[in-house]
Amino acid sequence: MKKYILIVISLTAFMSCKTEKKNGVLVVEEISNKIAEITPEMMETAVIYEANIRQYSPEGTFAEFTKDIPQLKQLGVKIIWMMPIFPISETKRKATGGDFAYLIEDEAERKKALGSYYAVSDFTRVNPEFGTIDDFRTLLKTAHDNGIYVILDWVPNHTGWDHPWLKTNPEFYAKNSKGEITDPLNDDGTSKGWGDVAQLDYTNNLLQETMIEDMLYWVEKENIDGFRCDHVEPIPISFWKKAIPQLRKNKNLFMLAESDNVNFLKDNLFDMGYGWKAHHLMNEIAKGRKSVKDWDDLMVKLSNDFDDDDILMNFITNHDENSWAGTVDERLGDAKEAILALSYLVSGMPLIYSGQEYDLNHRLKFFEKDSIPKTKGKTWELLVKLGTLKNTNTALNGGKEAASYKKIETNNDAVLIFQRSKNGSKITFIGNMSNQEQTLNNILTSKYLDYIIDKEVEFTTKTITLKPWEYKILID
């Protein structure tokens, strides 16, 4: 974008701009590489990518991740969600196994304990492990130059024990009956097990204003494009009703809540929530504990519970699921490809977690340095195809004006068939959601493009037979 400003006041106001004469008039050319503002149209077709900077490369730096941003476009990525980029507290820093690092006697082993991203010691600086603020700015500019938005993982519920507020503003924190600042507690007063962080108290209005100021810093000074907000539900929704309009005052932002509580999506608050129910159900279907009937019931429930313009994030893995619940292979096994395709075909926005695109098959360490594989294989190829379809076919629109979802009856509780359609475009998903071969009466009478194999097909036999976990994406 270029803006030409006629000089009528002192040139000192434009010291950072380029000056030249055009038609004899001195003008200033103010050059900006800003990306186009976030729109509802972008949300319809977007894929979101969760970037784990520490584990993305052996170096674990902004610079190494930045190198790969251009190729994320091949996966259809339009939003990068950066896991917390802020400094991590040394005090009560966690080590693998959940112990505090200071309990480790061996110094070499103790140094391996890098702590949790979510134990923030300063919301307005970057973690020196990852590089400098200039390195982050280069990352952001590279993303914007490639038409990709960047949102920061924000941790509003608690801070690490080194955060300056503990000394300057102890009134910002929750306290027990003895007046001691506490880590986050359950309703019965027991610890949630997050001893490396101190619980914030949102009854304090100054805390609310200060938190908003810190968020605004990244919007106004660094030009980021939104936030993924961690653990939003303990915080009064009144805070979000105050904060989000201020954050959006001068710029459209994309806001993602780590919650599937519909109230966070109302009143123009968060744009998207977590599709937790679908995620857990996909895990259960893969294990044979749930069936297509359960999926159909969930689709009805979500349709009833959420408004038409609500967006849910669809995911088969993320940082928590990979490290604590298990890898994609552990949880989904032979169903992983069919379930991944399903996560793209239903309404919402699909997520890719760092390493997923490279067939990551180990649990990444959470408190220590680790690294993902970087060899492109079958999953990369599938994600390219799914991302392209998501980006380009309106039948997969999943935002505020999502394509319709129509269940097609199969009379077989192991076979899922549904159709998505919008503006004359139609896509049909058919999948065997079991580990047994399935045969059903043929209810597909048209000619289709079998998208994954890029071949025209016509179902002419009276029955359809599907191998275990076989699926098809059919375009009319």
Outline:
This protein has 476 residues and is of the alpha/beta class. Helices cover 28% and strands 21% of the residues.
Word description of this protein:
This protein is an alpha/beta fold. The chain has three domains: 2-31, no CATH class; 40-403, TIM Barrel (Alpha-Beta Barrel), CATH 3.20.20; 415-475, Golgi alpha-mannosidase II (Immunoglobulin-like, Sandwich). It has 14 helices and 21 strands. The strands form five sheets. The protein has an eight-stranded parallel beta sheet with strand order 10-9-6-5-4-13-12-11.
Low-confidence stretches: 1-31
Instruction: Count all strands and give the number.
Output: 21
Average of the residue pLDDT scores = 93
How much of the sequence is in beta strands?
15-25%
CATH superfamily of the largest domain: Glycosidases
Shape: globular
CATH names the topology of the largest domain as TIM Barrel
Helix content: 25-40%
Spatial order of the strands in the main sheet?
Answer: 10-9-6-5-4-13-12-11
Structural class: alpha/beta
Instruction: Using the coordinates above, name the CATH class of the largest domain.
Output: Alpha Beta
Largest sheet report:
8 strands, parallel
Using the 3D structure, state the CATH architecture of the largest domain: Alpha-Beta Barrel
